[in-house]
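Researcher: Next entry in the queue.
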Amino acid sequence: MSEDVKSRPRRRGRAEAKATPFERKTNYSTLKNPFPPMNVFSEDQIEAMHNTALRTLEELGMRVLLPEAIALYKAGGARVEGDMVYIGREMVEATLATAPKSITGRAGARARDVTLELGSLVFQPGAGAPNATDLVRGRRPGSAQDFTEYTKIAHHYDVFQMMSPSVEPQDVPTHLRHYFTMQTQMELTDKFPFVFARGTPQTMDGFQMLQTFRGVDDESFLANPYCYTIINTNSPRTLDIPMAQGLIDFARHGQLSIVTPFTLMGAMAPITVAGAITLSHAEALAGITLTQLVRPGAPVCYGTFTSNVDMKSGAPAFGTPSHFQASLAAGQLARFTGLPWRSAAGSASNTNDVQAANENQMGLWGCLMAGATVIIHSAGWLEGGLSVSYEKVVTDAEVLNMIAELCAGAEAGPADIGFETAISEVQPSGHFFATTQTMERYNSAFYEPHVHDYANFGTWTERGAQDANTRATKVWQDILAADKRPDVDETRLGALKEFIAKRTQEGGAPPES
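Model: Structure for this entry, 513 residues:
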């Protein structure tokens, strides 16, 4: 050994590192978007789009099919001609003044509460699909079993902060389906739940079940949103009966509505991004206005879901450049209003392949760069929403977890820079595997994937050469086998079941159309 090496200061190595292990703290349940919002249009152009939306409501109006909603608009100052409602800009301005800019959704556990405001970031898995699919059982109509299993999987991942109506359990009769979906959510998760708005009787049942199980009195329920629903307008410029009734019922009882026009460029909306988003903006403002006419200060979120169609087939397309641009434009208009808002990712691919991954991530990054508060369909969505894939929920959750890691930021204190514990311990041409800093942090320094495989080709081959889609099957199977769920108050659960049994015997509540 040379004299130079002998005379070097002795550094602590692997055997001598006795410092307290570094504890990695990343909270996926409360996220803030770390990315500065990106604009696609100038401020003047956004103002012109906003003014055109107001002109659309004033001069062209909204077709409203629910008489109660028409009466509320008229009482608020709108001009009414039959089922056409013409909303003045002063009504919209009053709406934007009373609609809350920050909303706290009360979950089953206080640690699961969600804050919805510009800058916060909340993910939901894919929702509303008629079909479920996985590599074991194939594609099939959504069932009670599928809804139950998706609920368990969504509860497992902290990065999903709000529950979604994953698939329609088509083997449960429609007049009883809302009992099943609510009981499933109450028993299997303590996250912020979804309640269908399919007519007042079903909505009131949902509210009663939630209050019974969570032990919430009427005063508290009215003062805080304990659930949410999605309200879709029927583009162009139509608000149908169940959606209008949903806006009224949820606003009247202090619960959260997310008003979401579904506008496809070239089909239900103009073929341009600017035109489609202007129409979407007008429809969203019309719905939001109704909630504030019912109850000023009622919790409501601005929403949009705008993409283009494939002009060769007419089929919806997602994760396209136009979808990305539409999200950016919607974000600019949402910031113009100051309201928390919802956007969406998703995929038109028929299977969980590279197309599905590309489309979902392109749509996802559009939402992130736009500053979306809530991103629905962030995982699992295939076929433009006709199915939700078990494997895709898992592979997309991997990406969402990594985004959540970015939300935590990077630390740069003295211990993180590591002059004493890393840089000064290694000689030129050396390595950092055994430094004090590495030994303190090697178990927790980096994000640990649950489905990605970082092994080399040889090791990967020895393990069976499985691709990510195949590995994802075992992941969701393990989640279901573990069956981790929150503790349940058996007395309240019993009361919930009694309510459901009584209402079932009375005939349930058919959805209204």
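Model: The longest strand covers residues 305-309.
Researcher: Noted, moving on.
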